Recover the amino acids of this structure.
């Protein structure tokens, strides 16, 4: 099994396979629109603009599991990200990242890169770096800002 074996939903409800990103490094992030860490969208967009031409794919997955910090309607989420932070990288449908109904992708990511004390995701903006071969190579804490992971990203380009 690899990261490419997962199917995710787009905001419009259509499903897509992560096979679409085969051979490209990915930064997979659980996001939230109404969180104290939401300004990280700006840094994620900057990484996207800087490294997308070299193959980097940033994939945002809105999550409402941490103090209900995401809009109910996915259209509000995508509009908020575009209007307030100029986000042009893909934002997918809302997912759960922990618990019995966690999206299988996030169960897989957490199994490959456990957190400091447990494998559960503790908050919004946990980031998983995936190399060109689909290996989950690094997990970054929510408070680790995008500019602080640039060297790690360059190492997988």
């Amino acid at each position: 099994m690899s990261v490419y074996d997962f199917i995710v939903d787009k905001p419009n409800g259509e499903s897509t396979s992560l096979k679409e990103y085969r051979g490209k490094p990915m930064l997979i992030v659980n996001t939230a629109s109404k969180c104290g860490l939401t300004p990280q969208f700006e840094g994620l967009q900057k990484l996207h603009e800087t490294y997308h031409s070299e193959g980097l794919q940033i994939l945002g997955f809105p999550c409402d599991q941490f103090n209900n910090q995401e809009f109910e309607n996915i259209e509000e989420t995508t509009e908020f990200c575009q209007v307030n932070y100029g986000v042009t990288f893909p934002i997918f449908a809302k997912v759960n990242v922990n618990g019995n109904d966690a999206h299988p992708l996030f169960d897989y990511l957490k199994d490959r890169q456990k957190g400091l004390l447990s494998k559960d995701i503790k908050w919004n903006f946990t980031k998983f770096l995936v190399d060109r071969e689909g290996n989950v190579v690094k997990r970054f804490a929510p408070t680790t800002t995008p500019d602080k992971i640039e060297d790690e990203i360059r190492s997988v380009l």
User: Anything to note?
Assistant: The two ends are 22 Å apart (CA to CA). Helices lie at 40-51, 74-85, 104-112, 150-156. The CA atoms of residues 8 and 113 lie 20 Å apart.
